[in-house]
Structure formats: structure tokens, C-alpha cells
Amino acid sequence: MRARAHMARLLPQPCGQCGKPVTVQHEWVIGHIEPRALRPDLTWTVSNWRVEHKACSDASGAAVRTALQFSPGLPPGKPVVPFLSLSPDATVSQLSVIPDELTWSVFCESAPDWALPYLDLDENSNPPLAVSPIHPDATGSYGPQAVEWIEQVEAKTLRWWQALGLVLKLQHDAEGRLLKRLVVESAPRRAGKSVGLRGLALWRMEHGAELFGERQEIVHTGSDLAVCRKAQKEAWRWAEAHWGRRSVTRGNGKEAIESENGDVWLVRAQDATYGWDTTLGLVDEGWDVKPDTVSEGLEPSLLDRQSPQLVMTSTSHRRARSTMRTALATALTGEDPRTLLLWWGTLPGADPADPETWRKASPYWNEGRAEYVAAMYAKALAGEQDPEFDDPDPMRGFVCQYTNQWDLHERGAIDRGEPVLEADEWAALQVIPMESPEPAPPDAAAVEAWFDGCLSLGLAWATDDGVVVSVTDQPDLTSAVAALKASGFRRTAVVGASLLEDPVLKGVRVKAGQGRAALAVQELVRLIAEDAFRHDGGEHLTTQVLAARTVPSADGHRMSSKGRADALKVAVWAAGAARRKSVGRPRIITAS
Fold first, then answer.
1. Is the pTM of this model over 0.70?
2. What confidence tens digit (pLDDT) does each residue in 9-42 have?
3. Fewest C-beta in 10 Å: which of 66, 364, 437, 484?
4. Packed helices 160-169 and 143-154: angle between N→C axes, nearest 10 degrees
């Protein structure tokens, strides 16, 4: 009890598993950074405690128990670790040198005969800064045949580092099972990472069922849908010629390739990675991928598969989330032979002005790349921002993007700007839902989409104490419309302009919602100042509101945070529409 009282004083705090807020209204428990199943000696060590949602804690406990029961390939005497070994707090406090066992020279000295043909670098190639050793149970690799097949499909010769990566990813044991379950791959921008992802996905679609004895289901997510779509798009023409025109689906957020035998490669938004039987998970530009996309979406779907793999690839970024940094830091410990690390980059202290630094950080180098990187350095030196990444620190952005230097000891992304609301201020606006046999239909409703294909549905009720809003995350517009109708709403809904012409809305009265996210934030602040806004404590809206940050500008405040804001927008739209309705008698709000 004293332990719980001690942790309760720290609330609200982010959940140690999913990173979302934990408040006194949530069901929460005291979790452990190092799981008790692995480190029982740290059970009562306060520095090993953290708050977690009860549901998150229960799920993580199941993952650890599964790992304790199923851990092929771990040598005797090694500690058993979860499938991905991704503790949210696994960090490297000060990385100044690469461990000897992960250096290229040591790798070459211990490489088996079947890997030797891939150790000779050509004049345009550079060895990795860090690379994991061959798995002790490896007897060979499917890599050579994959390289040959991919080069035929791509009609090009793979670069040395791309071929090496495939050989190391596809090493197998005597029974033909893949041994590297987690692949952490990092290289500077425009090095050719997408070619490797695309080739691996297509090769597994074509050969995976025969080699591994089950249909291949590949789930591909990333920082945004555009990044993933671009990687897959280059394969559409080949897939149509090979499996027919119906093998390719191009719908935004629903991109897919399906073979004639039912093997699929799906491109999905970060919040749509749940529910698949994944054999290969691809995380593209993982610097901006949420932790729970991996831990709650992809990781559980890989269990009980034949030769499952999760491939996480990314270039460094100054505002990187914990997901990729944690994976990289964990891989650098070298404790799990099932993890493959391939990292081209630099360590802190490298001279960003030295062309030799640029070269060593790049797996592939030629005159054209040298000129391009030199031009990017000149822009950074002059203080010019990179508009693609909106980075306020141009030189730090250059170091991340073109020398691929990761800040592994940093906790979380650097937040620029001021938060719109503090957690305690938001919690004070929550009303406690009361059950009612006849829930009152909402007075207003709003629907808005975000750039990655996700949607939010906001419902609002006008009461004597202000407008009460409830927002839910919806996988698609069809689901949003179904939920809207189920609520009993029969009035005119406010809908984002990009959705107005969608045929799914046929029969629903709609009007256009207007305004950028920054305007929605300003309106939310105004409603709260007038004591006219309440919410039901829903996690979806809470997460977006607490993550929203703004900075002053010439035309008022603008958003500095880069995450989703669709829930925030529909909350304000619905609240504004409900406030214009007649309040009438007080209503009883029910849980959504």
C-alpha cells in the first residue's frame, strides 16, 4: 500500500508500456522496468518501478511468459528475453565506442565460409559502424538466392550493402528456420533502404510459403503512409505482370499486393497494424513510429509464426521517438543472438565538417552523393532549415540525416513549443459517465480524417454544466458512420472537407468543418476559459490534447507538434455545434 501511495503522488505520468497518460481515473498498477520474471531481485527497488495501465501490464506479462516458454536459438546460460527485447527504458547512457564484438573487423574474423563472398567491399562501399555476429546455430543463408531473384525483379544490381543485409537477415539453421527475429537497420538518407525492404517482402511472398510452410502475411507500416506507399509502389507493375491486375490494391491506406496463392503485403497506418497473422513486419522510418505500434500491434501478431521477422529501418532524427532509439540501444548490448543490428553512422564527437566523416557514415558513396551531402552541409552551416523535416536546428538536423548519428541516452523526443494543456488541467475537465437505460442522442457530431488514413468521430452533448465531448478512434469512414448512426444522432454532422464527397456519407446530412489544427487549439482554449467544455476522459482525445504543442508566430500560434490532431479538431467542432443548440433539460451522459 505504501508503494502504491508513493507512485500515486507522481500521477499523472506516462504509462511505462504504451507512453499514454495514466491518471487517477485509470486502472493502473506498479510495473517494473526490468520484468520480475527476469530480475526478481529488483522487485522492491524503487528505481525499477513505473506506473502502467493495468491492461498494458497484463499484456506485457503475457509476452514475457511466452518468451520464457519459447526461446529457440538462445545458447545455454544466456538470460531469456522477450521476443523483441524492447524495454521502453533500454538506453545507452554514453556511447563513445562500439563494443568489440559488434565491430566489422571482428565480424569478418569469425564469419563462416558461406558469408565470405559478401565481405569484399567495392570502391564505392563502406563497412557498417556496428554489425551483429552470425547466429551460433546458423548453417547457411537464403540470401544468395534472394539476391539473385531480387536483381531479376528489380532489373538492377544490388549495392554491396543491400546484398550483405539480405544474406544476414536470411541466415537459417539446419532445419531451414530463420534465426534473426528482429532486424534493426539504420543508414543515412537516400542510401537505398527501401530497395532492401521491397526486395525482402516480394521474395518472401514468392518463396516464403514453400520454405517456411505457411502463407506469408507482410504488414508494412512507418512514419506515414506516403513513405510505405512509395516503397511498395515500385513493385506494383511487376506484381500485376506476374500475378494479374487484380493482385494490386491502390486505395489510400489500403494499399496491398496479393499473390495468386493468397500471400499478401499490406501497407497500413500505425494505428491499423492490429489483428493480422504477421510473418514479416516492416517498420519504415521508425524514428516517428509510436512504441505501441510495435509492442501492441506488430509484436503480438508475430508470435507462433514460422520464421517470423520484424525489420525496423530508419535514418536518425533529432525528434526521434523512443521506438527506434530503444531498438538500437538494445541491439547494441549484443545480448540476444536473435537480433541483427546493421548500422552505418557516426558516434558523438565526429567532425560534421569532414567529408571523410560523411563517407564513413554512408554504406554507398560516389561523386554524386559527395556533392549532394556537401551542398546539404553548406545549407546547414548557413542556418537554412530542411523544409522536409521542419528542423529548427539545421546543423543538428544535418548530423542526424547525413551522418546518421543517434542520441541514444536522450529520453523521448525533444518537444518544441509549449503544451496546450497540462495533464492536471485536462483531468479537471473530466466528467464521470453515468449509466442510463436510454442514452440521450448527442446534440452534435463531427468526423475528421488524418493524413495517415485514420479518422476520429466526436459526439457532444449540451448540458447545464457545459458541453460534454466524447471522441473515438475509427479505422475507416464506414465504421465512423456506423457508430454515428448507432448513437442515435439524426442531425447535421460536421465533416472534414476531404471526406465530404465520399459515397459512404450518402444519406447522412453533413456540412464542412473548417480550420487548421492550430485554430482548433485556440478554440479549445477559449471554450475552456469560458468554462464551457467537458470531456469523458477518453484516451484517444486525451493523448492528442496532451501531446499538442504550439509556438508563437506572426499570424498567431501555430502547431509545433507533428502528431495526429483529428480528435482535437472533431472535439472542438462538435462542442461548437452543440453549444449553439438549445441546452434544454440536463442530460445524463453514458460511456461510449
1. no
2. 667 778 888 777 887 777 888 887 776 555 555 6
3. 437
4. 130
